[in-house]
Write the structure tokens for this entry.
Amino acid sequence: MATGNWLVIFTLALAVAVVGTPLMRQVAIHLGVLDRPAARKVHTTPMPLLGGVAIYAAVLVALMLYADRREVVQMAGILVGGTWVAFTGVWDDHTGLRASAKLLAQVVAAGVLLAAGVQVKLPVPGWLNIVLTVTWVVGITNAFNLLDNMDGLSSGVAAVAAAYFLLLAALSGQYLVGAFAAAVLGASLGFWVYNFNPARIFMGDAGSLLLGFLMAVLGIKLRFPTNVPWVTWMVPILVLGVPIFDTTLVVISRLRRGLNPLTTPGKDHLSHRLVQLGWTQREAVLLLYLVGCALGGIAIFVSVATVRAAYAIAAWTALAAGVAFVWLERHASPSPET
């Protein structure tokens, strides 16, 4: 019954996004909400923003089919927090916000989740779970915001991650997680149709912040009754490995160059470095989709692994990420002006 409803939720979200995205494109053009070309951007013509509004509408409409009211408070908290970050993104797309204001808005959204009972629940002191919740929500929200730097990248990676969250929810029988994952998957794919290279519209901060927030929530809500928390905490990190790696790469690289990682844009993301190495934009984006799929597969294996096997896999994955990080810094390091 649950999986059948998830299919309906996915289909409705997909349909709303497919229909709503070109409508928002026209609205963005009419209102002049455009992303202008710049030296640190890869597009060469003004691009309509507000695609994130279509993503938001698709998720919201699809979740009207959510029938289980046992978690209505948590669902309301998630939707209120998501609405808040989406509104913040629209405001930033239209008038521009300081990084500190966006960060504060994300902390407020995390506070809404905590008030609704959505939080990390590791076997550690309660105050530490609260800190971990806020850090995770703000970190993943910003990671998707930073990842939105090339046609189809953020929406495609979000779709891959949502698909794995949906599969993991099905394997563990989690209705709320499955419903949200199905809605995000449909909305992301519906928007992706218009956003893949060559893009006809960008999601803007409204979309990237919303997707990041919802991905953070899915990671928090995912539970594994058949395994122990000391293993399963790694699962959402693996599923979201691509945006986490990209953010880590950007932050450390900018700090090494004496730049503020929050306020300094540049072509120093993972996707930009792949292009620098000779890949086309499409090839770079498709490669990162494949990496996301591989990490999702590892996450599924870890979710049922023993403690020893899980940490062995985590160690090898971390080692591979470290090697990739060092290699990229040496062979595809950004030029001083980027």
In short: Residues 152 and 196 are 4 Å apart (CA to CA). The longest strand covers residues 34-35. The chain has one domain: 2-331. Strands lie at 34-35, 47-48.
